[in-house]
Amino acid sequence: MQDKELYDYLSSFIVLGENNRRFVDSLSKEYRWNKSFAQKAYKEYLRFIYLIAMTETPLTPSLQIDKVWKFHMGYSESYWHKLCETIIKKPLHRNFSSNFNKGIEKEFFIDLHQRYYEEFNEKPSMLIWGVSNNRYINNFINNTLFLWSKKYCISTTLLFFGLLFYIIKN
């Protein structure tokens, strides 16, 4: 790990409320995520911020991480002053749009996965980071799993592996 001190500081970063409970609750309500998923997404968001802080090249987040990032920016004091100015000491802007070059975005996403493995010595969570280097396919898969899990009252992880098993068998 390039900067263990920064990583440890980010890991304990609090946006709002004791242990981020209020921020994670608000995040789960905003995107209709269960609290466990919102907590995991927040943890992975902080890892993404760490990776951005360690490089000068752009990195593309998954859609879930991008949602947390966008949501955090709404807490401007926490985001701009505490996170950007005080902790990582550089501004972080979200520069991706629907008109962004998809080929370049794909390269940035692949680069992020490689850097993630190098820094954390593990692969990114499929549930948060997706199964494809296409953010939009991942969003469709995750949203579909979420809706089906609510309809049939089963976990998204169980549903994901059930669908994966079905696809492999057929």
Quick take:
By secondary structure, the protein is mainly alpha-helical. It is built from nine helices and no strands. It is globular.
End-to-end Cα distance: 41 Å
- The H/E string reads HHHHHHHHH
Total number of domains:
1
Mean of residue pLDDT?
A: 75
Topology:
Blueprint: H1 4-11, H2 21-31, H3 35-53, H4 63-73, H5 76-88, H6 102-120, H7 126-129, H8 135-152, H9 156-169
Structure, described:
This protein is mainly alpha-helical and 170 residues long. The chain has one domain (4-169). It contains 9 helices and no strands. It has helices at 4-11, 21-31, 35-53, 63-73, 76-88, 102-120, 126-129, 135-152, 156-169. The longest helix is centred in the first third of the chain and has 19 residues, at 35-53. The relative contact order is 0.11. The mean pLDDT is 75.
Defining traits:
170 residues, mainly alpha
